[in-house]
Write a sequence for this structure.
C-alpha cells in the first residue's frame, strides 16, 4: 500500500520529458564521435530521473509521517540511499573511463536542474503560493 501511494505521488511530480534534451544531447555526442562522454551524459540523465522519483517519494512519505523527527529520519535515510546509488554508478563508470564518469556527472546535474525547474514552473509555484496563504 505504501509503495503504490509512493509510486503515484512520484510520477505525478516528476516530468519525464524534462531530461529528454540531455538524453538527446548524449545521443548527439555519441553520433559526433564522443562516445564515452555521450554515453555518460545519457546515463546521467537517466540517473537524474531515478533520483527525482526517489526524492519525490521520500518527500511524500516524510510529509505523511506526522512527526518531525520521523520525517527527518526518512529524508536522511532516503538521501543515504540516493548517495549509495549515485556513488555505485560513479564507481562503475570510472571503471570504464573517466570521461564517461565526468559526462555522467554533467548529464546528471543538468537533467536534475531541468526536472526541478519543470516541477517549479508547472505546478510547484501554485503549491508554494497556496502554502503561504493563511
Amino acid at each position: 500500500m505504501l509503495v503504490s501511494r509512493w509510486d503515484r505521488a512520484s510520477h505525478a511530480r516528476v516530468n519525464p520529458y524534462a531530461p529528454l534534451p540531455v538524453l538527446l544531447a548524449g545521443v548527439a555526442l555519441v553520433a559526433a564521435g564522443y562516445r564515452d562522454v555521450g554515453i555518460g551524459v545519457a546515463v546521467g540523465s537517466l540517473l537524474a530521473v531515478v533520483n527525482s522519483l526517489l526524492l519525490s517519494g521520500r518527500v511524500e512519505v516524510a510529509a505523511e509521517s506526522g512527526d518531525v523527527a520521523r520525517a527527518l529520519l526518512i529524508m536522511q535515510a532516503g538521501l543515504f540511499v540516493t548517495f549509495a546509488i549515485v556513488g555505485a554508478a560513479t564507481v562503475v563508470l570510472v571503471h570504464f573511463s573517466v570521461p564517461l564518469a565526468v559526462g555522467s556527472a554533467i548529464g546528471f546535474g543538468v537533467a536534475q536542474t531541468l526536472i526541478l525547474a519543470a516541477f517549479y514552473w508547472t505546478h510547484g509555484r501554485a503549491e508554494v503560493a497556496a502554502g503561504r496563504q493563511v
Remarks:
- Residues 119 and 128 are 11 Å apart (CA to CA).
